[in-house]
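Pair request: fold both.
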Amino acid sequence: MKLLGNKADVAPRQRIARRQLSTDFLEHAREWRRIFAETWGTFLLVVVAAGGEVVASRSGGAVTPGMRAVAPGLMVMTIIYFMGAVSGAHLNPAVTLAFAVRQNFPWSRVPGYVLGQVVGGVLAALFLRVMFGTVAALGATVPGSGIGNGKALAMEVLLTTGLVSTILGTASGARNIGTNGAIAVGGYIALAGLWAAPITGASMNPARSFAPDLVRGDFGTTWIYLVGPAIGALIGVIFEWILKGRPTAAARLRRKVRETAMIRRTREGGGEMNIHQATKSYENWMRSCMPVVETHLRLKHKQMRKSLFLFFRGTFYRWAQLWPELCANLCDAPKVLAVGDLHVGSFGTWRDTEGRLSWGVDDFDESYPLPYTNDLVRLAASVKIVIDSKKLTIGFKEGCSAILEGYQKALKVGGCPFVLAEHEKTLERLGVEAFEAPDGFWEKLDHLPVVNHGLPRDAERVLRKTLPTPNLNYKVVRRQAGMGSLGQQRFVAIASWEGGHIAREAKAILPSARVWLDGHIGRRQSCYEKAIQSAVRSHDPFQKIMGTWLIRRLSPESNPIEIDDLPEERDEEKLLYAMGSEAANVHLGSKRQVANILRDLRRRKSNWLRSAARACY
């Protein structure tokens, strides 16, 4: 399963190093490193390009015109190899401009890159002057003998157009990297120099031409080498659009999502996180948000080793990391207030205000604004896991179709709550005849360890407030339950009232793992109650947020329903259809997105959900 780790866990060292370097180009905190790389790379390029003329003059022609033409191309090739993954090896304001216009490179980073390139060029020119004096005009580029300014400008436009076309055709995003890019770009620069150097010097680079002119104080023809490459860069981008089309908004978003996912996956230690590093990071973040029950965390780790489904349920934080990259083509879907951690074990029953038995999603711990596709793909992926473990017999294709059909139909009709207590036939909507209450529910609850000390005051206050009478005698026990929420404190107040047992649970709430990805410390989970209140459902009057605690009534009929607890006689297609319908009931809380979701569903291929779930499996 891809969520167990990632390719870096088992890949060769070269792939790990390559991905680690690629994050240098994306991480905002490392912009200084990229600018330094551009400064150093441009310094080397200008030393070779301008220095060829200078050394040829000082050595009496030992450096031939052919050598002078080829040397800059070889240097660019070398620079791409050793630092292309860090800064993209632009080395040229015209190239940076082209990447920005093509929307591969943010405009906010253009000034820093251009400044680094100019500084690198000027330092190179100063180095040549100190070493050799003002010889051969410090290798300045000027129009050749008999070449007018207009012809020189046209030639620089032409040469730069070819250079930019070559770069855009071989670059990865806004980076010159890899063997193909290095050979193509270096080869073009050498070829252009071999035939065009006598005409204009074959600059194609404002930083390379401006630097010697600044140091020697002669700007007579500098404008040619500023304007020409800029125009050539724009024409090169236009030609790229003609050849390949302009990037769509969806494509730009998918690229941004992939880049953001890579940054988030490498936030710790500068390398790509594996599952162990991600778990450590997430649990440390948990501890920064709230007191954690360490014994429950250890139990969670033990449970996760038992089965793939338990691992899946216990690692939504890992899903949140990897899903945007694995399913980048789904991340431009309309956003809703989603369940987040939706799977076949996310459903349960409760009693509504009128005492009717209701069914639906009963876990909103990870609720967060997400593309609607997140919930559907995660639900389908859980179906695949359960099918493979022989706990469902339905075919995966049929299961995905049932989820989608239920989801779409519920959206079109405005949703419908699942109220099951009217008469037994209502249960047919779920494909089961009856739900059996868990055995020994009250006995098991009553035998949990009593909390004699260490009960937080705010938890005690909210528990007391939810009991039916102010002076009711009760005891508080510590409870462990769920899978993803193991480690969060749970306290249960148990009392006898009017002839029977009652229980109220207070569970410490934790912000969604999506907040962890952004590196924030959260004290409130604002999405939980909003998701419940906005969903189409018959509400549980006891389920509410009070301070930093989730309060709900516990009873044999107010409980999650596990796949293992379902009757053997069941219609699994109806059950998955109902789960898809309930996902729509939740998403209908984002009413303004309904039309957009239906439109988005119509444009997707019929097998999109099945393919996406397999990609995450």
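--- second member of the pair ---
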Amino acid sequence: MKPLLIGEAPGTYVEGGEPLTGRIASTISSLVGITVEEYLEKFDRANLFDYEMTGRWPWYEARHSAAEIRDGLEDGKRVVLLGVRVADAFEMLTVPLYLWQPLPGTRSAQAIRVPHPSGRNRLLNEAHHRSAFRASLIGAIDR
């Protein structure tokens, strides 16, 4: 079963409206050490929103979207939450980074919280965070 990466919303540079494609696909695949083609093949991908976000973050709508995604998950699904906002929408904000935990509201899905891989997040500028990010996503594939 492919792991599911969940992001916030499409960015400016997406391909064909598919979640987590374009520039972010290049960034994630580079961090993980695989090609973009391998990334697209190995991961299911979703965003909380299907439109580019502007203005204030809609917390209520994000939690509603997270609930819809959570309700559609297969038993045993591995879910990678990209960033603080996504983790908060799934009620996993207080879970430490890079630690697999049961996903609240599911029977057996597991989730891991990682830093958002956008250029704005400076955590991934640090070697130990890049290494942990890579290990988390490779671990999601291999589980």
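Observation on the second member. The chain is about 35% helix and 15% strand.
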